[in-house]
Design brief:
The structure holds 2 protein chains of 2 kinds. By secondary structure, chain A is mainly alpha-helical. Chain A has one domain: MetI-like (MetI-like fold, Orthogonal Bundle). In chain A, about 80% of the residues lie in helices and about 0% in strands. Chain A contains 14 helices and no strands. The radius of gyration of chain A is 24 Å and the shape is globular. Chain B has a domain of about 200 residues: Orthogonal Bundle (MetI-like fold), CATH 1.10.3720. The radius of gyration of chain B is 22 Å and the shape is elongated. The chains are: A mainly alpha, B mainly alpha. At the A-B interface, helix 1, helix 6, helix 7, helix 9 and helix 11 of A face helix 5, helix 6, helix 9 and helix 11 of B.
């Protein structure tokens, strides 16, 4: 177990190194003069020169790179031009909103995805199966922002049941948070739920064909025990591996969902940073979000090893 | 001699095609995607109004009558805009697929076949795949500047590593096959082995991947333009049309729903097509049992 943990952590190092290099390179790849592009069309040459100096863009590239890594090791991920504060501070403020939204969406994803998958597998080839798989197909085909817009039109504009935007922090009002985040979370969840339903179904069908399930049935165990205790616990193991992918998809999707519902999370922060040419924020934020994702994936690997002893001996 | 080699192969292709055409998912996917592709190809012939022509007299007309899909807040024909949007989606999707087919194969084959390149290429690959896809695409388009070409480039940068990984894993398995070892023993060069013995057999998973990739590309392009970092307005992309429709959800919901449905039909068609291709070409990955 410890060996596996060390191996996962070590293999993350080159990935993070290259990720940080790519983030570093982004701002420098802006065609023409990056400082002029960031400052905007209305900036005077003096302002551009000042900005170039502030961002260290007037130094030799190698020196810039060394400064960049020195900063990273000291927890300095740059300063947002738009917000006038450190990237790390801005991320610490906004990331919890995104994590909250993603967790909420994850709950929808698991309930809908695993539920549909199990029902479909148990009634293989019946109309229930086909309906569940059709639903999953719609889930993976509806763009989450389109679903979000449809939900706004229906539930906020026409019926007036839910607020169409505005964010209530969980710490202030948990019930308000549940309400104000319900539509974003659901619209964000459907894609992953569709994927998960398909994977759960095939994993469940695989397990249901195994000999030990036949044995359990033959010795007269009630159907419910066979399915939930014997089949599901094994069918869920491969599903854990896709949790990492689902988290990545949720974070990706959150970018759009947050912009659509004006939730003050990391996605909205980075979209606004991009639209306002706040490249230090884009660079630092991208690195932090990706680092977070790498950490989640390591955690998922560990969880998988805990659940499936075979992995540990590979 | 050449004919003797060719005929069984051709027979096999015909059999695969027959199986595909009998596959319900594939056929329904082909149908949905086909409609969109045909509409996109015929765009200049089936629209008569310039998609960007403003006509303030005619703004917010509901679908029906002279305006099949109605008009938007500037009185532009939504039919024209959605049809030209379809063409742009197809062009972007096809370009991303083409770039992936070329570079994904090259990188994947190089990494899978030449062990010395493997570690280096796959590390870069892993790093690119570690970024959340849309975020990386947004960052790249923002750096390069918003334009159709840059959207294609950004989406290719995001998706080529994923394609390369799939090609690589097929190549690694095939490289160890006896018939490949035999070709090595017979003195065939690397290029010949890759070109004639390995890549043709690595195609099935890649074709499946490319059909799903087409769907992702269309979806991501719409997402980028919806967020305002894709093709510059007033370019009629589905994402742009929907983004402009956001302000008029109450009075003109069709500005959002029509391009949204078009987008959904395209993506669903491609997903069904991909499912069908996977079932027939690559049964190991089969999900629908």
């Amino acid at each position: 177990m410890i060996r596996l943990a060390t191996r996962s952590l070590l293999s993350a190092i080159p990935v993070l190194l290259i990720v940080s290099l790519i983030s570093f390179g982004l701002m420098r790849l802006i065609p023409g003069d990056p400082a002029a592009a960031i400052a905007g069309i209305s900036a005077t040459p003096a302002q551009i020169a000042q900005l170039r100096q502030d961002l260290g863009l007037d130094e030799p590239l190698l020196f810039q790179l060394l400064q960049y890594y020195k900063g990273l090791f000291q927890g300095d991920f740059g300063r947002s031009l738009l917000l006038g504060k450190g990237v790390l501070a801005a991320t610490a403020e906004r990331l919890p909103v995104t994590i909250g939204l993603s967790l909420y969406a994850m709950i929808f994803t698991l309930i809908i995805g695993i539920g549909c998958g199990i029902i479909a597998a148990l009634r293989q080839n019946s109309w229930v199966d086909q309906a569940a798989m059709m639903f999953a197909m719609i889930g993976i085909s509806v763009p989450n922002f389109f679903l979000g817009l449809l939900m706004i039109i229906l539930f906020a504009v026409k019926l007036g049941w839910l607020p169409s935007g505005g964010y209530i922090p969980f710490t202030e009002n948990p019930w308000g948070w549940l309400q104000s985040t319900a539509m974003p979370a659901f619209s964000l969840a459907l894609l992953q739920a569709g994927l998960l339903a398909r994977i759960t179904r095939s994993s469940m069908l695989e397990v249901l064909r195994q000999d030990y399930i036949r044995t359990a049935r033959a010795k007269g165990l009630p159907g419910r025990v066979v399915i939930f205790k014997h089949a599901l616990s094994n069918a869920l193991i491969p599903i854990v591996t896709v949790v990492g992918i689902i988290v990545s998809l949720l974070l990706s999707g959150a970018v759009v969902t947050e912009s659509l519902f004006s939730l003050p999370g990391m996605g909205l922060l980075l979209t606004q940073a991009v639209l306002n040419r706040d490249y230090p924020m884009v660079q630092g934020g991208l690195l932090l979000v990706t680092g977070f994702l790498v950490a989640v994936n390591i955690a998922v690997d560990m969880l998988y090893a805990v659940l499936d002893p075979r992995v540990r001996y590979d | 001699m050449i004919e003797a080699e060719d005929i069984p192969e051709r027979r096999e292709h015909r059999a695969t095609l027959r199986r595909l055409l009998r596959h319900r998912l594939f056929v329904s996917g082909l149908f949905l995607f086909g409609i969109v592709a045909v509409v996109a190809a015929l765009a200049p012939f089936i629209t008569d109004v310039d998609p960007n022509r403003l006509s303030m007299r005619n703004k917010f007309l509901a679908p029906g009558g002279n305006w099949v899909f109605g008009t938007d807040g500037f009185g532009r024909s939504l039919w024209s805009r959605v049809v030209w949007g379809a063409q742009l989606s197809m062009i972007i999707g096809a370009s991303v697929v083409a770039l992936n087919a070329i570079f994904g194969t090259l990188i994947g084959a190089a990494a899978g076949y030449f062990r010395r390149l493997d570690t280096m290429l796959m590390r870069v690959n892993d790093a690119l795949m570690a970024f959340p896809a849309i975020l990386l695409a947004i960052a790249v388009t923002s750096v390069l500047g918003p334009s159709t070409l840059n959207v294609i480039l950004a989406l290719s940068i995001v998706y080529i590593p994923r394609t390369a990984r799939i090609v690589r894993s097929s190549v690694i398995v095939l490289r160890e096959m006896e018939y490949v070892q035999a070709a090595v023993a017979a003195g065939a060069g690397h290029w010949r082995i890759l070109r004639h013995h390995i890549l043709p057999n690595a195609m099935a998973p890649m074709i499946v991947q490319l059909s799903f990739l087409f769907a992702y590309a269309v979806l991501s392009e719409a997402t980028l333009s919806f967020l305002g970092v894709g093709a510059v307005p007033p370019t009629p992309t589905w994402g742009n049309i929907m983004s402009e429709g956001r302000d008029f959800m109450r009075e003109a919901p069709w500005i959002i729903t029509i391009p949204g449905i078009a987008l959904m039909v395209t993506v669903m068609g491609l997903n069904l097509l991909g499912d069908g291709l996977r079932d027939v070409l690559d049964p190991r990955l089969r999900i629908q049992q």
